[in-house]
Amino acid sequence: MKLVLRGLGALLLLGIVGGAIFYAQPLWVSDQLLRFSLWRQGIQSEEIDAGGFRLHYFEAKPKQGAGTPLLLIHGLGARSEDWGRMIPALAASGFHVYAPDLPGYGRSSRPQNADYSIAMEEGAVDAFMQAVHLSRADVGGWSMGGWVAMKLALDHPERVDRLVIYDSAGIYFPATFGSDLFVPTDAAGVESLLHALTPMPRPMPGFVMRDVLRKISRGGWVISRSMASMANGRDLLDFRLHDIHQPTLVVWGAADRLIPLDVGRKIHNGIPNSVLNIVDGCGHLAPSECSRPVIEATEVFLKAQPPMQGGEKSYPAPY
Question: What is the pTM of this model?
Answer without folding.
Answer: 0.94
